[in-house]
């Protein structure tokens, strides 16, 4: 037991010592900059069993113990129908990392397996809905997901290249269907490469995508096969070889939007076209 406790402590301390600059500082910066946590919050930290959500859980647990801002956490695991190997791995890692998880069952994988069109989209929607609903029943006002900086960059590019739109994965959003609930992303500024280094440094193994369609690659690091997101990952890898700052440049581009140079944009249902102000802005030199 003493050896197990020492291993738990070493893994947690590695976040604030060995990876302080790469992980802990960026985790804290994201929470502060985007005001993700406020006094009195009760947050459902949603754990899928992958490296990102498990690291987020450890960061949230440590923050809750040492912060001057009082808030509560619930470490929530939804079992959408994992196979026994994946389910056992989640429980083993939770024990190894000393994360007191609460598990609830759903039949999402069985339901989605019967759908022919857009099963991944439906699965994501159903999972999000169950997490909101269960968290709210537990008295939480926020759910925390483990999306990281690379997810943000990939989402921006996917929207441009495949969705014909400029949009960003936001650090926090209000729930449309669950009044008073918010979704926050505490790992928003943490890079995936640093999460992988932390995992390897501590010799940890987490599940990958555990859905019925990809179970054969559950324990491998292949990025999920031939999806659009994997195409974007490959493109970014090529771009980084020529310009290591490309990720940050993409991120800064959605922080530094000049509406005067956009052909059109919308805010909710409110649509605007540059011709609306073209004549009155004629004194502005945009060349």
Describe the overall structure.
- The protein has one domain: 3-Layer(aba) Sandwich (Rossmann fold), CATH 3.40.50.620.
- Helices cover 45% and strands 13% of the residues.
- Strands 3-2-1-4-6-5 form a six-stranded mixed sheet, sandwiched between helices. Strands 7-8 form a two-stranded antiparallel ribbon.
- The N and C termini lie far apart (69 Å).
- The protein is globular.
- With 287 residues, the protein is α/β, with parallel strands linked by helices.
- Helix 7 (149-162) packs across helix 9 (228-242).
Quick summary:
This protein has 287 residues and is α/β, with parallel strands linked by helices.
Low-confidence stretches: 216-225
Mean pLDDT: 89
Largest sheet: 6 strands, mixed
Shape: globular
CATH class: Alpha Beta
Structural class: alpha/beta
State the total count of DSSP E strands: 8
Q: How many discrete domains?
A: 1
Task: Give the second-level CATH assignment, the architecture.
Answer: 3-Layer(aba) Sandwich
Q: What is CATH's topology name?
A: Rossmann fold
CATH superfamily: HUPs
Placed side by side, the strands forming the largest sheet appear as 3-2-1-4-6-5
**What share of residues are in beta strands?**
5-15%
* SSE string: HHEHEHEHHEHEEHHHEE
Number of helices: 10
How many angstroms does the end-to-end distance come to? 69 Å
State the share of residues found in helices, binned by percent: 40-55%
The rounded Rg comes to 21 Å
């Amino acid at each position: 037991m003493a050896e197990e406790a020492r291993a738990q402590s070493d893994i947690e301390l590695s976040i604030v010592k060995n990876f302080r600059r790469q992980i802990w500082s960026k985790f804290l910066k994201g929470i502060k900059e985007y005001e993700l946590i406020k006094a009195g919050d009760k947050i459902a930290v949603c754990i899928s069993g992958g490296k990102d959500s498990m690291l987020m859980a450890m960061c949230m647990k440590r923050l809750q113990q040492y912060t001057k801002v009082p808030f509560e956490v619930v470490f929530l695991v939804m079992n959408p129908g994992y196979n026994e190997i994946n389910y056992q791995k989640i429980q083993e890692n939770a024990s190894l990392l000393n994360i007191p998880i609460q598990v609830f069952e759903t039949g999402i994988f069985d339901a989605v397996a019967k759908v022919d069109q857009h099963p991944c989209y439906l699965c994501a929607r159903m999972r999000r809905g169950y997490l909101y609903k269960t968290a709210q029943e537990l008295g939480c006002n926020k759910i925390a997901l483990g999306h990281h900086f690379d997810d943000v960059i990939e989402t921006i590019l996917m929207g441009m290249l495949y969705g014909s739109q400029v949009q960003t994965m936001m650090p926090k959003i209000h729930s449309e269907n669950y009044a008073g609930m918010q979704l926050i992303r505490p790992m928003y500024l943490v890079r995936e490469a640093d999460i992988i280094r932390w995992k390897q440094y501590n010799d940890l193994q987490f599940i990958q995508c555990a859905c019925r369609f990809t179970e054969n690659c559950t324990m491998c690091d292949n990025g999920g096969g031939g999806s659009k997101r994997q195409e974007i990952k490959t493109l970014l890898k090529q771009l980084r070889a020529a310009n290591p700052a490309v990720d940050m440049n993409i991120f800064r581009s959605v922080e530094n939007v000049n509406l005067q140079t956009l052909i059109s944009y919308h805010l909710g249902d409110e649509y605007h076209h540059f011709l609306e102000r073209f004549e009155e802005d004629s004194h502005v030199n945009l060349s």
